[in-house]
Amino acid sequence: MKKEYRIKKNEEFSAVFQKGTSFANRQLVIYVMDKPGQEHFRVGLTVSKKVGNAVTRNRIKRHLRELVREFKDDMLQEKDYVIIARNPVANMDYHEIKKSLIHVMKRGKILRSSRQSRQQSPKNIRKK
């Protein structure tokens, strides 16, 4: 992810937590805050030490970064997002995390078009 798409500073995380709205399921929490005048969205990722060791936390963050990269064209611009991974994510693979992230994004109406997420949903893949 490019630098301008990242939230890194503690004050920026705190602002999203205080002023933003949250959407959650059992695995993920997403905080969303409007940033009018900002050309693109920014994302911050948080994985607590309670989730697992460093290897596990970094794997989760890699998966989440890749998923954000995959959905970046469909995510609403002019917003800041903070994605928090909860404990169950430690035992999930990439496709399960993707399914969970799509679910939370739909709840928060973060995706512009739900068509792409429906196409990539595991239950819509034809089995031969």
UniProtKB/TrEMBL annotation:
The keyword tRNA processing applies. It catalyses: Endonucleolytic cleavage of RNA, removing 5'-extranucleotides from tRNA precursor. GO terms for molecular function: ribonuclease P activity. Keywords: Endonuclease, Hydrolase, Nuclease, RNA-binding, tRNA processing. Its EC number is 3.1.26.5. It is an enzyme of class 3 (hydrolase). Consists of a catalytic RNA component (M1 or rnpB) and a protein subunit. Belongs to the RnpA family. PANTHER family: RIBONUCLEASE P PROTEIN COMPONENT. RNaseP catalyzes the removal of the 5'-leader sequence from pre-tRNA to produce the mature 5'-terminus. It can also cleave other RNA substrates such as 4.5S RNA. The protein component plays an auxiliary but essential role in vivo by binding to the 5'-leader sequence and broadening the substrate specificity of the ribozyme. This is Ribonuclease P protein component. It comes from Thalassorhabdus alkalitolerans.
